[in-house]
Amino acid sequence: MTDLPNPSPVSTPNSWTGASAVLFDLDGVLTPTAVVHERAWQELFDGYLESQPGKAGYRESDYFDHIDGKPRFDGVRDFLTSRGITLPEGPTDDNPDHATVQGLGNRKNKIFNDIVSAGVEPYTGSVRFLEAALARGLKVAVVSSSRNAPSVLRAAGLDVHFAVVVDGVVAAAEGLPGKPSPATYDYAARLLDLPSEECVVVEDAVSGVQAGNAGSFHSVIGVDRGAGRQTLLDAGATLVVNDLDELL
After folding, report:
1. Residues 62, 43: contact at Cβ < 8 Å?
2. Rounded to an integer, what distance in angstroms lies between the CA atom of residue 155 and that of residue 134?
3. 118, exposed or middle or buried, with CB in 10 Å at 0-12, 13-18, 19+?
4. How far is 22 from 9, CA to CA, in rounded Å?
5. Which residues are the active-site residues?
6. CATH fold group of domain 21-32+121-247
């Protein structure tokens, strides 16, 4: 096992000591694509709700309350439920123009990819932390609910660092439930040939922190990109930072 860099004063004792791997969420942890997801969800539901008179419009808080960190189609269902709307499921490859759960999810995906195609700049502090972890011999993996994780990693120039990526496509193929279940993180640990107890989970979303807390992981580091420090602590984070370079 390899120790991570000495913890900063914000760390709790032994938060990093003895870890062998770091399992990173992607959107909001390594890349600012969580903001792109927020924009894409708002554009999706602003358009859809125009056809639903009497239903409350999309609010910024809806992203954190119903969508953030979840598999895409779970986010669609949970948001619609919050508005008392039930739609047919539709086929997985449903047309983005169709008013189905899958259709709306695919429409959101198209909006997201149109924005990301212009390129993604990763968080500088997260890159510094990733490079430090790799220099100390830690294994790394990305665990993301997004089905777009490989393309986002390529757009950010980070794909060369991650041989293990457990995204929404992998989760569906393996029959793994999404966050807040710890299943995708446990699967990444197995792919790294490590016990979960030696893996640190790094998350910015409440559902992701809950996933880490629900498993037997070494620790769960929350990165506050808007969810709120206390909210992440209440969800089970071992500690919360504003940026990962605080841990160097």
Report:
1. no
2. 20
3. exposed
4. 20
5. 25, 27
6. Rossmann fold (3.40.50)
- Cβ neighbors of 191 (< 8 A, separation 6 or more) are 141, 164, 166
More confident residue, 7 or 211: 211
* Cα–Cα distance, 10 to 25 (Å, whole number): 21
Q: What is the pLDDT of residues 13-58, one digit of tens each?
A: 345 668 999 999 999 999 998 788 899 999 999 999 999 999 999 9
191-241 pLDDT tens trace? 999 999 999 999 999 999 999 999 999 999 999 998 999 999 999 999 999
Q: What angle do CA 143, 63, 81 make, to 5 degrees?
A: 105
Report residue 137 as tokens: 């011999």
Secondary structure class of 201 (helix, strand, coil): strand
Domain 34-116 falls in which CATH fold? DNA polymerase; domain 1 (1.10.150)
Pair 125, 244: CB distance under 8 Å: yes
Q: How many other C-beta atoms lie within 10 A of the C-beta of residue 142?
A: 24
Residue 102 backbone dihedrals phi, psi, to 5 degrees: -70, -40
Sign of CA dihedral 157, 96, 208, 178: negative
Sketch the domain layout of the chain as residue ranges: 21-32+121-247, 34-116
Which residue in this structure is represented by tokens 């979840």? 70
